[in-house]
Design goal:
It is built from nine helices and eight strands. By secondary structure, the chain is α+β, with helices and mostly antiparallel strands. The mean pLDDT is 95.
């Protein structure tokens, strides 16, 4: 953590295209040393706003747009194949495919929230994922996994950074792709990914650690959704 050393943060037009962010007129770089170039002006403005909002100490955890953009530039660009592999692997163990056997209200809630997302994945990407009840692993059809992988590979580096965060946080590639496509928003994604945890809290009461985990996941989901929205603006 370092002290704020600048007076002004502003979005700029970058040479060669794209939009940068400057602190007192000097372009900022990622931790990897690359110039921070955003593909849209609204994303650059949002990042500049995060820098402008820092008071005293610079707190990276309060700058989610900056962190996702830097991840896209530093990590995704350099490790794209490995990141695609990691994200695509979630298709073989997607949260939405593993349903409770009982009680009936939970089974019904999972079906109501989760099945439409699997139906969307089948219709949009041609990825028909099988569903099982219980925790025993079920093998998915290779054609479905290949279709999901193709959808991941088609994402640019910036979108891939957001989808990576969503997939890992939600435990579901289907949810992440639905968010990326604008099919669902942050609230719907969080509700689907936290369904089991919310059910447990309703039955047994709140646990401080579990409540904090749900809040963090909801916040990370909202950050990724905002990032994607800024890419599309």
């Amino acid at each position: 953590m370092s002290k704020r050393f600048y007076k002004q943060a502003a979005a700029t037009d970058a040479e060669g295209g794209g939009h940068g962010v400057a602190l007192d007129g000097r372009p900022i770089r990622t931790s990897g040393g690359a110039l921070l170039i955003a593909p849209t002006v609204v994303l650059a403005e949002a990042i500049a706003g995060e820098w402008a909002a820092q008071e005293g100490d610079i707190r990276p955890l309060t700058m989610p747009m900056m962190r996702l953009a830097a991840t896209a530039i530093d990590r995704v660009a350099a490790e794209r194949a490995a990141i695609v592999d990691r994200i695509a692997a979630y298709g073989g163990s997607d949260l939405l495919c593993y349903r409770a056997e009982a009680p009936a209200p939970l089974v019904e809630r999972q079906a109501a929230l989760w099945q439409p997302l699997l139906d969307w994945a089948a219709e949009t990407h041609g990825a028909q994922l099988a569903v099982t009840h219980g925790i025993t692993h079920i093998a998915q059809d290779q054609a479905a996994l290949d279709a999901l992988r193709a959808a991941v590979e088609a994402l640019d580096d910036f979108r891939l950074a957001a989808v990576s965060q969503l997939t890992a946080g939600c435990g579901s590639l289907a949810i992440a792709l639905a968010v990326s496509a604008g099919h669902i928003g942050a609230e719907e994604a969080a509700a689907a990914s936290l369904l089991d945890e919310e059910w447990q809290a309703e039955q047994w009461g709140e646990d401080a650690e579990a409540t904090e985990r749900r809040r963090n996941l909801a916040r990370e989901t909202a950050d990724a959704v905002r990032f994607l929205d800024l890419l599309d603006s």
